[in-house]
From TrEMBL, chain A:
Gene3D superfamilies: Cytochrome Bc1 Complex, Chain C
InterPro entries for the chain: Cyt_b/b6_N, Cytb/b6-like_sf, Di-haem_cyt_TM
The enzyme's E.C. designation: 7.1.1.8
Residue segments, region Disordered: 540-559
TM region(s), chain numbering: 50-69, 113-134, 146-166, 212-235, 268-289, 346-366, 386-405, 425-442
Organism (species): Micrococcus lylae
Cofactor(s) in the UniProt record: heme
Cytochrome b/b6 N-terminal region profile domain segment(s): 17-243
Plastid found in the keyword field: no
Catalytic activity entry: a quinol + 2 Fe(III)-[cytochrome c](out) = a quinone + 2 Fe(II)-[cytochrome c](out) + 2 H(+)(out)
Record-given protein name: Cytochrome bc1 complex cytochrome b subunit
Compositionally biased intervals (Basic and acidic residues): 540-549
UniProt cross-references to SUPFAM superfamilies, sorted A to Z: Transmembrane di-heme cytochromes (SSF81342)
Automatic annotation (TrEMBL), chain B:
InterPro entries, alphabetized: QcrA_N, Rieske_2Fe-2S, Rieske_2Fe-2S_sf, Rieske_Fe-S_prot
Annotated stretches, region: Disordered: 1-47
Species: Micrococcus lylae
CDD domains assigned to the protein according to its UniProt record, in alphabetical order: Rieske
Family: Belongs to the Rieske iron-sulfur protein family.
Name of the protein: Cytochrome bc1 complex Rieske iron-sulfur subunit
Length: 559, 358
């Protein structure tokens, strides 16, 4: 061979170690691939990181807790340090939770760190998904990663609920009792499902151990797997970026992993850890020593589930069990004589929950169906430039928030000293009207912001300098935007409604009509991006000294 | 006006075809990355030195935080000596603040380092197709070869029997979960008190005394005053060693006394109360929370979980909230010694509705 590559001779100890690893597991290709990989930088891209770091902290603090927690419902007599419960009969699970808090140094800190991290984990995932939704980052080719994200969110709820129920005190026991009631209400299989879950009748002796297996093994394993898939797909797709100068559909603009991005992201892990530690040290969460061991008889008023469970609970509260004398308990006679029961008061509330979850999962396809847009998108939308989607998203959030608020209906009533019933009546009205109002208002806000952008592009920034012309007229001097500022404001599309088109047989299907009407709802009123002609015209206008003209020519509304 | 000129030509389908981006799409062409603006530390060595010192101070704060943690861990409170809780909360505070400083010192320090000293030139990388057409053809060819080599298409017998086997093989792993509820195996099938039927029965039976929850003290009719509400369990519940909570979850009862004239009593239930003392199941018929709140002026019972409200004067009919049927009433009487006893079990299942309830 004429060309030989001279083999690398490490000179330092670190070099020798790196070379040892490289020659065994192949580090060079990994470094080559990722060492200088470019990641776009924007503060809204941090939420996913917060979620990931919270999960790491959950694993660390959770591992500590498993060493001390005893997931058994066997009766024990509490003899630990917490005097008010000394000598009381309780389950081993509750006793060991008390031990963690009062007899194990740092146990209370770890418990609170774990609980706060769990709340932050779900919160960060939720906000991350809102960012992805409102910027259209779920569009092709990232639809499947959106679904993986939905899976992560739901597994986050599951992890939270299974963990929340482990201490086996009054609060979590009543939470489980609600789960038992919901399970039992399911048609045909409900009572059996409940008995399978609880190992017989509620509460039984099995549930804590079973939830523990789910909580520390199955659910986290699924979450880990989904995270791996999620990040793998992020690498495959490369990150999206916001529109702006220099950014195109074909490039990624940002900072290299080494050193800048790694430093910022790595440092950010410690910041998230620090903030959670501060909360765990200073803000009590789930003071379960106040509640006492689970007993089916007592209950506290004004109790609240963890925040992400709230909307399920609120949906249950919103539903009237009876309207007048009409009961939503339907007893349906069967041909063989007996009758079966359908508690629609419990089953109906599962519908908005299911609609929101399924709508969220299916949204990438719903939107592509409405817009007939199947192109790849790597440049994000500014939310105002997709008024239909933004309005639909805010409508969904509003619906969610009405249910969420309903879970606190009693606290709202006591805090604001209004009638509990009135709070619920109002929320029932908002349940139906809120999303509609939110849709309309949000779309108007988006259109107004788009018009503001047009104004800026065509007439520049208001300078605050008022000039008097020789003729005596007053006008404000405007400062033109730079190309960099301007490009961000003009580089978007404003799709038009796509009318229903006949299918292959020349017939317009009902689905196509539905699609066309949704398309009209989304895009009928629209604001065009500024065109070249308009820009030239506006600049000419400006040169003629009419820079201050507040023309409405830019405000083109649809037909 | 400019956009009107466009309106005729730019139909939606046209808009989609702009994806390639060859034609000028926007009012101005992409001006490219803005010029880099140097930071203070890029040009002024003094500023860079200052940033270096700031970062090291942050790292030092982290070290102090770790020390604070150890002070909290070893220096404050020996648990197990029945220290007051203030000590435990002080220790928790020190652990939290110490960890926070330790972590934030490192985190803020590194981020500050990255922002002030590491280069902040934006870099550009090009995207690649998720898959190239060439790759796809190779992959499709490979898959075709693999399938051909298995001969599964040529030999449908193999395919069909494999499908059958694969469909059946997982079933044992589903069936094996049947004993998630194995309590049936121990219950008494003679009394129909097994399976779902168990939900119909509680510990209440003729002559079982009503006792206070949790003390177990029996109750005389005269003990129950107008306006009061007594939390009740069946006598003998506290003596159960196994399944006490299961029985209690079904058998808890709320006892209230009011003027019997105020209550509209259904025919057939006239003798279910004792001089205006009524006993109702305490388990909400919505999803089963204990109904713990009694408002004596209005005679309303309120479930604190979902605010179902039941009116005692209408035999605990639902007047508000998500529950859809009345609380079951426990028929009670007075025994020879003057204690309150049950006449029978509830006449319908207590608690949340289930499919087989009928």
């Amino acid at each position: 061979m004429s060309t030989t590559v001279k083999e690398f001779q490490p000179a330092t100890r670190t070099g020798r170690l790196a070379n040892y690893l490289d020659t065994r597991v192949g580090m060079s290709p990994i470094v080559k691939e990722f060492g200088r990989k470019i990641f776009p930088d924007h503060w809204t891209f941090m939420f996913g990181e917060v979620a990931l770091y919270s999960f790491v902290i959950l694993l660390l603090s959770g591992a500590f807790l498993t060493f001390f927690f005893d997931p058994s419902m066997a009766h024990v007599t509490y003899e630990g340090a917490y005097a008010p419960l000394y000598g009381i009969e309780m389950s081993a699970a509750y006793a060991s939770t008390l031990d963690i808090s009062f007899d194990i140094r740092g146990g209370l800190f770890m418990r609170q760190l774990h609980h706060w991290a769990a709340l932050l984990f779900v919160a960060a995932m939720s906000v991350h998904m809102l960012r992805v939704f409102f910027t259209g980052a779920f569009r092709r080719p990232r639809e499947l990663n959106w679904v993986v994200g939905c899976g992560l969110l739901m597994m986050g709820w599951a992890a939270g609920f299974t963990g929340y129920s482990l201490p086996d005190e009054v609060l979590s026991g009543n939470g489980l009792r609600i789960i038992d009631g919901i399970l039992k209400s399911l048609p045909l299989v409900g009572s059996h499902l409940s008995m399978f879950l609880f190992g017989g009748e509620f509460p039984g002796y099995s549930i804590v151990g079973r939830l523990y297996a789910l909580h520390i093994m199955i659910v986290p394993a699924v979450i880990l797997l989904l995270i791996v898939i999620h990040l793998f797909m992020v690498v495959t797709h490369k990150h999206t970026q916001y529109p702006g100068p220099g950014r195109t559909e074909n490039n990624v603009v940002g900072y290299p992993v080494g050193p800048v991005y790694a430093a910022k992201a790595g440092g950010f892990f410690f910041i998230v850890f620090g903030v959670l530690a501060l909360m765990a040290g200073t803000v009590t969460i789930n003071a379960m020593w106040n509640y006492g061991p689970y007993d089916p008889s007592p209950v506290q008023a004004g109790t609240q589930p963890d925040w992400y469970i709230g909307w399920f609970d609120g949906a249950l509260r919103l539903m009237p069990g009876q309207i007048g004398d009409f009961s939503f308990l339907w007893n349906i006679p069967m041909p063989w004589g007996s009758s079966v029961s359908l508690p629609m008061g419990v089953l109906f509330p599962l519908m908005p929950v299911g609609i929101l979850i399924l709508g969220m999962i299916a949204w990438p396809w719903i939107e592509a169906w409405v817009t007939k847009d199947n192109r790849e998108h790597h440049i994000l939308d500014r939310p105002r430039n997709a008024p239909g989607r933004t309005a639909a998203g805010v409508a969904g959030i509003t619906w969610y928030c009405v249910m969420w608020a309903a879970a606190s209906s009693d606290l709202i009533a006591t805090h604001f000293q209004v009638s509990l019933n009135d709070v619920l009546y109002l929320l029932r009205v908002l349940f139906f009207l809120g999303p509609v109002i939110a849709f309309i208002v949000t779309r108007r806000i988006c259109l107004s912001l788009q018009r503001k952008d047009r104004e800026l592009v065509l007439h520049g920034h208001e300078s605050g300098v008022v000039e008097m012309s020789p003729e005596g007229g007053f006008s404000e001097r405007h400062r033109n935007l730079t190309d960099y500022e301007m490009y961000r404001l003009v580089s978007f599309e404003s799709p038009r409604p796509i009318p229903a088109t006949p299918g292959r047989k020349g017939k317009v299907s009902t689905m196509e009509k539905v699609r066309a009407s949704v398309s009209r709802l989304f895009f009928e009123e629209r604001v065009e991006p500024v065109t070249r002609e308009e820009l030239v015209e506006a600049q000419l206008d400006g040169h003629h000294g009419h820079g201050a003209v507040e023309g409405d020519q830019g405000n083109q509304l649809g037909h | 006006m400019g956009e009107h000129g466009n309106e005729g030509t730019q139909r939606p389908s046209d808009a989609l075809e702009h994806a390639g981006g060859d034609a000028p799409r926007y009012a101005i062409d992409n001006p490219g990355l803005p010029p880099h603006r140097p930071r203070l530390a890029d040009e002024d060595p003094k500023a860079a030195k200052r940033a270096e010192r700031q970062v090291s101070v942050l790292f030092l704060i982290s070290i102090i935080g770790t020390v604070v943690f150890f002070i909290g861990y070893f220096g404050v409170g020996q648990i197990g000596n029945n220290e007051s809780f203030d000590v435990i909360f002080l220790q928790n505070l020190l652990l939290g603040v110490g960890t926070a400083l330790a972590m934030l010192g490192i985190g803020v320090g590194i981020v500050h380092w990255a922002k002030t000293l590491m280069p902040d030139h934006e870099m550009v990388e090009s995207r690649h197709e998720v898959r190239t057409e060439a790759d796809r053809q190779v992959a499709a060819g490979m898959m075709q070869d693999i399938i051909d080599e298995t001969q599964i298409k040529r030999r449908p017998l193999l395919r069909n029997t494999l499908i059958g086997a694969a469909a059946l093989a997982p079933l044992p792993f589903i069936a094996v979960f049947r004993d998630l509820d194995n309590t049936d195996n121990f219950s008494d099938k003679e009394t129909e008190n097994f399976g779902v039927e168990r939900l119909r029965h509680t510990m209440w039976a003729e002559g079982v005394r009503l006792v206070r929850d949790p003390t177990g003290a029996p109750i005389k009719a005269s003990d129950v005053t107008v306006g009061s509400a007594v939390h009740v369990i069946p006598e003998g519940l506290n003596d159960l060693h196994h399944g006490k909570l299961n029985e209690k979850a079904k058998a808890v009862v709320l006892l209230m006394r009011l003027d019997p004239a105020k209550v509209k009593i259904t025919p057939g239930r006239e003798n279910w109360n004792v001089d205006g003392i009524f006993a109702y199941s305490k388990v909400c018929t919505h999803v089963g929370c204990p109904i713990a709140l009694y408002e004596q002026h209005t005679h309303h019972l309120l479930c604190p979980c979902h605010q179902s409200t039941f009116d005692l004067t209408q035999e605990c009919k639902v007047i508000f909230g998500p529950a859809s049927h009345a609380l079951p009433q426990l028929p009670i009487a007075v025994n020879d010694e003057g204690f309150l006893v049950a006449q029978s079990d509830f006449h319908e299942p207590v608690g949340p509705v289930y499919w087989e309830r009928g």
